[in-house]
Design brief:
Layout: H1 13-26, H2 32-48, H3 55-64, H4 71-90, E1 96-100, E2 109-112, H5 122-132, H6 134-142, H7 157-170, H8 188-193, H9 196-219, H10 221-234, E3 236-238, H11 239-254
Antiparallel strand pairs: 1-2, 1-3
Helix pairs in contact: 2-3, 4-5, 4-6, 4-10, 5-7, 5-9, 6-9, 7-9, 10-11
Length: about 260
């Protein structure tokens, strides 16, 4: 899977920017200390061989830093992250900067930008909820069963979606009960556990978002399948590659 839509001559500013984008995408999930160590090791290798440092030195260093992800797990990672990207694209939420499933077992990574298009409305927030639920929706559609990958940590899809839905109900003015009251909930878990009616309303928002994500992915199944395969094969795709693939699907659908 090529990650460029045009030929760029080595040494040009565009080439340098492209290399940096590729490396940044490949390095998703690594810490700053990890990157410093990989660069230092690549420099030492280049010096020993009496040559300039190469892109391949850095890419190899990043790959060597991570255990190989098992086939079935990598396939599920690809499904999950492709789901997020397809819904993000279909709902025009912003720029996709890159996708990565070349991780050490902690899941995939998506770098997604968001643009409110001048109006941060209820519809926009509902679109964001659908995108957050789209990884789970993709697993449901393609595999027929969901994994724990969408939950489990405070920065997981389910955690972020729950906090967003709670804010919609309690602080953003979109609530079904007393929408004009502002409440700042520092501990969402305590708030939801102590208020079953509120928890039910939040869960209903999440169910609606999941259903919408399933619907959007069903309407864009060809794009989803193509992106899953491309991401599985390449393990990391920069924003340009993802954009090119999804826009090809747009053109195909319009013909």
């Amino acid at each position: 899977m090529t990650t460029t839509s045009k030929h760029i001559e080595p040494g040009t500013p565009d080439a340098a920017a492209l290399v940096l984008k590729r490396l940044a995408t490949r390095a998703m999930g690594l810490t700053g200390a990890d990157i410093e160590r990989i660069v230092r090791q690549a420099r030492l290798k280049a010096r020993r061989e009496k040559r300039p440092i190469r892109y391949e030195d850095l890419e190899e260093g990043i790959r060597m830093d991570r255990p190989q992800v098992p086939y079935d797990l990598r396939w599920r990672f690809a499904i999950h992250e492709a789901g997020h990207a397809v819904v993000h694209h279909a709902l025009r939420l912003g720029t996709i900067h890159g996708l990565n499933i070349d991780t050490s077992g902690g899941g995939g990574y998506s770098q997604l930008g968001f643009t409110a298009s001048g109006s941060d409305t209820l519809g926009y927030r509902e679109d964001m909820l659908a995108m957050l639920m789209a990884g789970r929706a993709a697993e449901q559609i393609v595999v027929g069963a969901v994994s724990a990958g969408s939950g489990g940590t405070e920065d997981s899809d389910l955690a972020r979606a729950t906090r967003l839905a709670l804010a919609m109900e309690r602080s953003l003015g979109f609530g079904a009960v007393q929408p004009l009251l502002y409440r700042e909930d520092r501990d969402p878990t305590a708030v939801l556990d102590s208020n079953p009616d509120l928890a039910a309303r939040i869960h209903a928002r999440l169910e609606k978002a999941l259903s919408r994500a399933v619907e959007v992915l069903g309407e864009n199944r060809d794009k989803l399948n193509a992106l899953i395969k491309a991401l599985f094969d390449a393990q990391a795709l920069d924003g340009g590659a993802v954009k090119q693939l999804l826009r090809q699907g747009d053109r195909t659908a319009g013909n």
